[in-house]
Amino acid sequence: MTNAQNPTIDRDVVVIGAGPAGLMAAYTLKKAGKSVAVLEARERVGGRTWNGKVAGTDGKEHFIEIGGQWISPDQTRLTELVEELGLNTFPRYREGTSIYVDPEGNRHEYTGDRLPVKESTNKEMDKLIDLMNSVAEEVGATEPWAAERAAELDSISFKDFLAQHTDDQEAIDNVSIYVASGMLTKPAHTFSALQAALMAASAGSFSNLVDEDFILDKRVEGGMQSVSLTLAEHLGEDVFLGSPVRELEWATPDPSTADELNKIAADVRNGVENGVLGPVTAVSDKVTVNAKAAVLAVPPNLYNRIQFVPPLPREQQVAHQHISMGLVIKVHAVYETPFWREEGLSGTGFGGGRLVQEVYDNTNYGKNFAGGTSGEEDTNGTLVGFVSDVYAEEMWALPAEERKQRILSAMADYLGPKTMEPIAFYLSDMAAEEWTRGAYATSYDLGGLSRWGHLQNQPTGPIFYACSDIAAEGYQHVDGAVRMGEAAARAILEAR
Ligand SMILES: Cc1cc2nc3c(=O)[nH]c(=O)nc-3n(C[C@H](O)[C@H](O)[C@H](O)COP(=O)(O)OP(=O)(O)OC[C@H]3O[C@@H](n4cnc5c(N)ncnc54)[C@H](O)[C@@H]3O)c2cc1C
Which terms are listed as keywords in the entry (predicted)? Predict the structure, then answer.
């Protein structure tokens, strides 16, 4: 079918989703001489990476990164790509004293990577961190579902697993934050110890997750979305914005499966050959693409937004129902100056179990689309904070002004009363975005990873999966998205 409103085009590969994973897949395929079309639901590329602005009371617009921004040293594929694309990075400001707020609400200053907790709590935290380091090493990031103790570790919640090894609640709260509210953005009783071990293994170790100087090391000048914007420039007119894919025709139904007695039409319930090229047709709002393979580069919680024709095999249909997004609000507060630095503070604050459990100096550097000067830091100071899982729900239920005051006051617990007076304030609301529906990323419910993980990046017929949420190294991060995009492209190049 061809019509002027929705033309049909032919390409070697159709890529669904123009986040870093989809764009990297298309970029790799195009460099290898394949023709591609990238269909993106939104009117922009970048997915969960997003350069934004917020208007200040000073009459200026201030640059913010609404989505993903930091790169850590283990994220080597992203680091190489950033260089390849001619982009620059800058380090996070981290000089001075950090703040810890204990469960009683008392504020403590500290330096180094050890929280100023009681010696006994410190010992318990070390014990839990060592334990998680060894579990992460045991299961690895590549196939955690195949580990000998996979089913056992997947049957206990992260919270209960930690509680099996200590009864020090402060130690449990402080250690669980590194995976629960800090990464998967789900309460620690809702996901398994295996899922937590995958998170740690994907970052190199649990100790790396604990070390904020490691995990939140660098940012891209001009914002992380620049990676996607630059990849999209290379792809030019092969990227179609405002084109949500509604339907994917991907296989020929097997006539032997039809059941006239029960009025069941033919489908693929007896299985398909996976990872082989074959005709696919992706129907989007603006264009229809005929291709030989599809890269499905959307987060797994959105697979069900597409009508697969015929329906996907039963194990995929079941597995996808056990993968869900976390929920976190990224808080941006811009100030006349980075006032905390004048007080010798780094801007870093921690408090396991608190409304805002992490705060960092997020002052911009260099040129960005809201302004800035190359080679110079912004004179305005920016703080970033995070409100996770059940706290995020509680905050969204409040009227806007009350929400703002509650969040700022929780940040002021770390950095003092001046925190209450930002010149600009913005909350990233990825859960309200139709084409994301949560933040930061997806994970399995209890028991899901050991049961269905093996399916997540195995192709289904000519459909190849690519997303940070199914990555090994760089799991849930832009690095993982880039790796998965490249891996899907390579698999297609090698496929029959
Ligand atoms: C608030 C926040 C903070 C984060 N912080 C960090 C960080 O500091 N460092 C880091 O490395 N990572 C961070 N992340 C995670 C990081 O942004 C993601 O891991 C990364 O963007 C995933 O890339 P992706 O291409 O796999 O998926 P996405 O970025 O989600 O891209 C998927 C794309 O598919 C599109 N799409 C969906 N459905 C359809 C459809 N039916 N048809 C067509 N298009 C469709 C979407 O619009 C989207 O553009 C953060 C994420 C959030 C939300």
Answer: Oxidoreductase
Choosing from 468, 470, 473, 483 the residue with most ligand 1 atoms within 8 A of its CB, the one to mutate for a pocket test is 468
Q: Is 162 left (phi over 0), alpha (psi -120 to 50) or beta?
A: alpha
Summarize pLDDT for 173-206 with one digit per residue, the tens: 899 999 999 999 999 999 999 999 999 999 999 9
383 forms bridges with which residues in the sheet?
Answer: 333, 361
Answer yes or no: are the C-beta atoms of 228 and 19 closer than 8 Å: yes
- pLDDT tens sequence across 87-127: 999 999 999 999 999 989 999 999 987 899 999 999 999 99
DSSP H or E segment with residue 29: helix 20-31
For ligand 1, what atom is nearest to the CA of residue 481?
Answer: 26
327 lines ligand 1 (CB under 6 A): no
Give the residue, by CA position, lying nearest to ligand 1 atom 48: 47
Structure tokens at 53: 């602005």
Rounded to an integer, what distance in angstroms lies between the CA atom of residue 286 and that of residue 283?
A: 8
* pTM beyond cutoff 0.85: yes
